[in-house]
Design brief:
mainly alpha, 2 strands, 51% helix
């Protein structure tokens, strides 16, 4: 099953999906190691770690992809 199909299956299933937020690759691996099925990666978390500032649009998708 592809990751896309698995994600759709998770969000369509009854009950809650717990999706902790990762701010870098290490935190994503820790979340995965703890057994979570879904990880959220947001712009605010990435910019906060990279620049120590709020996300005010100074980064783009390529920056986030490189970071995560």
């Amino acid at each position: 099953m592809t990751k896309r199909k698995r994600f759709r299956e998770l969000i369509n299933a009854p009950g809650m999906v717990y999706a902790p937020g990762a701010y870098d690759a290490l935190s994503a691996r820790i979340i995965e190691a703890q057994g979570f099925d879904v990880v959220v990666a947001g712009g605010y978390a990435a910019v906060g770690v990279l620049l120590g500032q709020p996300d005010t649009g100074q980064s783009n998708v390529r920056d986030y992809a490189d970071h995560y």
